[in-house]
Specification:
The protein is α+β, with helices and mostly antiparallel strands. Among the domains are: about 55 residues, Helicase, Ruva Protein, domain 3; about 130 residues, Tetrahydropterin Synthase, Chain A (2-Layer Sandwich). It is built from twelve helices and eight strands. The protein has a three-stranded antiparallel β-sheet with strand order 1-2-3. A three-stranded antiparallel β-sheet has the order 4-5-8. A hairpin with a 2-residue loop joins strand 6 and strand 7. Helix 2 packs across helix 3 and helix 3 packs across helix 9. The radius of gyration is 24 Å and the shape is flat. The two termini are about 45 Å apart.
Length: about 300
């Protein structure tokens, strides 16, 4: 079994807000697998173990470029919040978004080869990126992008520079913009329940099954009858269906009027949403851990060695 280090425990605690000892026990039970340990904590602690799961762990910006029915959303990362506000970094991010919308690159590598000049650097996106790294003194990278073209109309909402949403729709522009703001606030995983990724559904089903088994065992230990397999199955499927409704856009209560769902609001406005893209800066990335004391000690040691 791999050693459970303090950094592994700290990382799991940062993602889940669970107590340190619970995190260590979960990691031990999961043989060091942090994803499995998070599932174990959710079984034991319920929603308390996921309230910090959306914390952002990297810096950068989300930028958009929309012209008519053609548009793009991009995420460009850097190392610190300070650089994410740098004018040259912001200009580069917006230029990249415009290039994606105009040229439809196949992937980040193809985007890097597109023509671009900025701040005396060029002639490609990659040359500008490398030049800015040298000028600013911090690494930066284009992480991901999504392009829309030739389909429905596009509505865009940017919450500062850290959250960006593009919604493809037909119908009312105001309703579509409201949906974009709703997506930024509620962060659905898919448009409809049928679109939720199978992997996410299976995780929820597994967590619900283990939670039901634990509850049944606790009932038996307390002298109560165990739940029948039929009841357990209904509980598990009920939990899965609840999850699907919570993470699918059309089923979520509309943020401006929680008496109706997003789907009902769209029907009232004779509007249909074909799809959406949501980017949150740093989502799923780990921030570089800083140890100021160790950094100073290293600098002193280096100076003495000269």
């Amino acid at each position: 079994m791999p050693a459970i280090t303090a950094s592994m425990v700290a990382e799991l605690r940062a993602r889940t807000d669970a107590p340190m000892m619970e995190c260590k026990r979960a990691l031990t039970e999961a043989d060091g697998d942090s994803a499995r340990a998070e599932e174990i904590l959710r079984v034991k602690l319920g929603s308390k173990a996921s309230k910090a799961a959306a914390r952002i762990t990297a810096e950068g910006v989300v930028a958009a470029s929309i012209t008519g029915r053609t548009g793009a959303l991009v995420e460009v990362n850097c190392e610190t919040d300070f650089v994410s506000k740098n004018d040259a970094f912001l200009a580069f991010s917006h230029a990249v978004a415009a290039l994606v919308a105009e040229h439809d690159p196949a992937d980040v590598a193809a985007l890097a080869a597109l023509p671009l000049t900025q701040d005396g650097f060029g002639p490609t996106v990659e040359d500008v990126r490398k030049g800015l790294i040298g000028k600013i003194g911090e690494n930066m990278s284009v992480r991901r992008f999504k392009r829309y073209a030739g389909g429905g109309a596009l509505a865009c909402y940017l919450h500062g520079t850290r959250i960006g949403v593009v919604v493809e729709y037909t119908g009312d522009e105001v309703a579509a913009k409201d949906v974009a703001m709703h997506v930024a606030a509620m962060k659905p995983k898919a448009l409809a329940t049928s679109d939720v990724p199978v992997a996410l559904v299976e995780v929820e089903r597994r967590v619900a099954a283990e939670k039901a088994a634990e509850d049944s065992a606790a009932a038996v230990a307390a002298g109560k009858p165990a739940q029948s397999p039929e009841i357990v199955t209904r509980r598990v499927e009920g939990a899965v269906q609840k999850f699907l409704k919570e993470v699918s856009l059309l089923n979520q209560p509309f943020v401006k009027n929680d008496k109706q769902s997003v789907e009902q609001m769209l029907e009232d406005k004779a509007t249909q949403v074909a799809g959406f893209t949501l980017y949150v800066v740093g989502e799923g990335l780990e921030k570089r851990s800083e140890d100021f004391a160790a950094e100073v000690a290293a600098q002193v040691a280096a100076a003495k060695a000269q």
